[in-house]
């Protein structure tokens, strides 16, 4: 019974993710170079983009992960890279938490935070897509904060994060138990911060730490968020 309920809840969440993704993909115009996000919501956006390409839209995309690149190839979405395009017109990506009011984000539960941040930073417009469960009053309320770290000196870096009160947990691959590696070859420490009073200050503190590559805090980057709710898709700015 409860697994049926869970399946229904998941189907509803997917419906809202898809609706948000489809709304964001209407922003894509002919000739654009688009940043392609990572995760299940971003996958719905790729499907919507592929459907428009099949009808004649001409675009190319810069993927934020190997997984997204593989899905884009399967769906027939042409890919390009930063060597060909230093600036992107638009990036569309999911998030783990979206803070109401600021649109600051936590990203990286899918393990692609660094490439996602590079793509978002290179885009003229960065649009977030999410279902309503991702909306929070304070970042860190529910999701852990992923922090990408260099494998060399992993232990002292984890100690540094622990000393800062961030309760880091090294991400491991389910099943094998091996440390997870990002596409860039880094490790991830999932930090249990609790509600974050000053996300910008924490992001600065983390990025100044030896051994830290980047944090999953995306501060002031999102121009708007398309959020799928039971009442329809809301565009937050
Ligand atoms: C990957 C991400 C994803 O965008 C984030 O985890 C959201 O994923 P989903 O849409 O599957 O909930 O940041 O690094």
TrEMBL record:
<dbReference type="InterPro" id="IPR020672">
    <property type="entry name" value="Ribose5P_isomerase_typA_subgr"/>
</dbReference>
<dbReference type="InterPro" id="IPR004788">
    <property type="entry name" value="Ribose5P_isomerase_type_A"/>
</dbReference>
<feature type="binding site">
    <location>
        <position position="134"/>
    </location>
    <ligand>
        <name>substrate</name>
    </ligand>
</feature>
<dbReference type="GO" id="GO:0004751">
    <property type="term" value="F:ribose-5-phosphate isomerase activity"/>
</dbReference>
<feature type="active site" description="Proton acceptor">
    <location>
        <position position="116"/>
    </location>
</feature>
<comment type="similarity">
    <text>Belongs to the ribose 5-phosphate isomerase family.</text>
</comment>
<dbReference type="InterPro" id="IPR050262">
    <property type="entry name" value="Ribose-5P_isomerase"/>
</dbReference>
<protein>
    <recommendedName>
        <fullName>Ribose-5-phosphate isomerase A</fullName>
        <ecNumber>5.3.1.6</ecNumber>
    </recommendedName>
</protein>
<keyword id="KW-0413">Isomerase</keyword>
<dbReference type="Pfam" id="PF06026">
    <property type="entry name" value="Rib_5-P_isom_A"/>
</dbReference>
<comment type="function">
    <text>Catalyzes the reversible conversion of ribose-5-phosphate to ribulose 5-phosphate.</text>
</comment>
<dbReference type="InterPro" id="IPR037171">
    <property type="entry name" value="NagB/RpiA_transferase-like"/>
</dbReference>
<comment type="pathway">
    <text>Carbohydrate degradation; pentose phosphate pathway; D-ribose 5-phosphate from D-ribulose 5-phosphate (non-oxidative stage): step 1/1.</text>
</comment>
<feature type="binding site">
    <location>
        <begin position="107"/>
        <end position="110"/>
    </location>
    <ligand>
        <name>substrate</name>
    </ligand>
</feature>
<comment type="subunit">
    <text>Homodimer.</text>
</comment>
<feature type="binding site">
    <location>
        <begin position="93"/>
        <end position="96"/>
    </location>
    <ligand>
        <name>substrate</name>
    </ligand>
</feature>
<feature type="binding site">
    <location>
        <begin position="38"/>
        <end position="41"/>
    </location>
    <ligand>
        <name>substrate</name>
    </ligand>
</feature>
């Amino acid at each position: 019974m409860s697994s049926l309920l869970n399946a229904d809840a998941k189907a509803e969440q997917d419906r809202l993710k898809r609706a948000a993704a489809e709304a964001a993909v209407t922003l894509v115009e002919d000739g654009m170079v688009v940043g392609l996000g990572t995760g299940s919501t971003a996958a719905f956006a790729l499907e919507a983009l592929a459907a428009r390409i099949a009808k004649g839209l001409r675009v190319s995309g810069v993927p934020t992960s190997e997984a997204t690149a593989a899905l884009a190839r399967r769906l027939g979405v042409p890919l390009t890279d930063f060597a060909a395009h230093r600036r992107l017109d638009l990036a569309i990506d999911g998030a783990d938490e979206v803070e109401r009011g600021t649109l600051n984000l936590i990203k990286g539960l899918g393990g692609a935070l660094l490439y996602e941040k590079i793509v978002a930073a290179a885009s003229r417009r960065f649009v977030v897509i999410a279902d309503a469960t991702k909306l929070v009053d304070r970042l860190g309320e529910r999701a852990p904060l992923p922090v990408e770290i260099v494998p060399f000196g992993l232990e002292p870096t984890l100690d540094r994060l622990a000393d800062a009160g961030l309760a880091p947990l090294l991400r491991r691959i389910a099943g094998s138990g091996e440390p997870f590696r990002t596409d860039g070859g880094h490790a991830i420490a999932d930090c249990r911060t609790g509600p974050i009073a000053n996300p910008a200050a924490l992001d600065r503190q983390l990025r100044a730490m030896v051994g830290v590559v980047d944090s999953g805090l995306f501060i002031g980057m999102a121009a708007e968020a398309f959020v799928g709710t039971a009442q329809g898709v809301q565009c937050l700015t």
